[in-house]
Amino acid sequence: MSNPPTNSPSSPRPARRMSVVPAILSLPLFLLLLVPVALLVTRSSPNSFLSELAAPETRSAILLSLLSSTAALLVTILLGTPLAYWLAHTRSRAATLAEAIVDLPTVLPPSVAGVALLLAFGRNGTIGAWLHSLGLDLAFTPLAVVIAQVFVASPYFVRAARAGFASVGADLREAATIDGATGWGLVR
Fold it and tell me: Which residues of 99-137 are buried (b: 16+ CB within 10 A; e: fewer)?
């Protein structure tokens, strides 16, 4: 038989008090995230929103965003999936170094990431100068936008895909091999 619950002073009240402290400490960040978005929504009217959407510059910017994001997504998936698979199944110094390199864009401030991309792909950059000699200028083009989006998004995709690949147990891969799966059949 179980004893009936008692209303002792040490039951839920301290736990509730402990949950209030993180809530209070997180309030400044919550407000930093909420206030600008709330002001954006409350200070714009439906008419001004519709008139902005009707402007050719806005539609052009939206189209560029949709196209560049789609292209960046495809490039990230195509190039990030094999890397994530390799990282999930390789334990070596090279894999450890590769993981550190993959994570770099997540710790760079956006302005530093922009400068790094310009140093690499700008007209006078290491890769950009070579491309310029071939008649290709990337800087400030839609392709440069795609490269920047891939640079920023890839670490998140590779990390998530790596975790997914790593979660597939060796016994499941072995069973698939016994059933005749090889190469890409194991990945699917």
Answer: beebeebeeeeeeebeeebbeebbeebeebeeebeeeee
